[in-house]
Amino acid sequence: MRKLKITELNRLSKDEFKQVDKIPLIVVLDNVRSLNNVGSVFRTSDAFLVEAIYLCGITATPPQPEIHKTALGAEDTVDWIYREETMDAVNELKENGYTVFSIEQVENSTMLTELVLDTDKKYAVILGNEVKGVQQEVVSNSDGCIELPQFGTKHSLNVSVTAGIVIWDFFKQLKK
Fold first, then answer.
1. Three-class DSSP category at 143
2. Considering the entire predicted model, what is its pTM?
């Protein structure tokens, strides 16, 4: 086997990316403090054609060198919106017909392995702060919560890793 050169990957140009159909998914970052995590979410969102990212609260917005370090330009391709309060984003998304899920460990959460999406619906997923997770008010106002099954000793995954897993699962189910 031979590794492919970058020129052989046939990736979209920035303009082509802006025009291509996206999956009906918006990612909401609720007070994510690490700019590297934010950049990583941009890069994953670019890879799997996420519609947009909402950056809320203390979550940094581009342009920032630390975001660019991991986003590698995806901060320029993926649409993003800043909201001072995550609840404003939740309310806006619901008003626009999105089903809103928090990614959080809660009573009666749906395991990601059991989640079945409707390809005729639009979705938003909320990922929370690296220490505190998704705010309780946001969890309480979500349409549901999704939990990633874990089998080791740690109680959580890095937010950018979680985002990658969740975005990939939504992409597999929603890509038409």
1. coil
2. 0.97
